[in-house]
Design a protein that fits this description.
about 80 residues, alpha+beta, two-stranded antiparallel sheet, binds zinc ion
């Protein structure tokens, strides 16, 4: 049981480091191409999932970066005093 808990914690830590280092990834819907092909015709249209940026945030990226921003703001405040 303890081994499973440690494994989960390590996996979470690794995921947090990956997200902090690289918060975005290619959009899974359009594969980073920014457009998708419509099913019936051969026309393309902007990808609705990534709003035609081709990238989207990894799961937890917003949370991790909020924590990083909060820590940096706290450090800045301490230096000023
Ligand atoms: Zn997309």
């Amino acid at each position: 049981m303890l081994t499973v808990l440690v494994a989960v914690l390590v996996a979470l830590a690794v995921a947090a480091v990956v997200v902090a280092a690289s918060p975005t990834r290619d959009c899974r819907r359009c594969g980073g191409k920014r457009v998708i092909r419509t099913a019936l015709t051969r026309r393309t249209r902007p990808c609705p999932r990534c709003h035609a940026t081709g990238r989207h945030y990894r799961r937890g990226a917003v949370l991790v970066h909020r924590v990083i921003q909060a820590v940096q703001a706290e450090r800045r405040n301490r230096k000023e005093k």
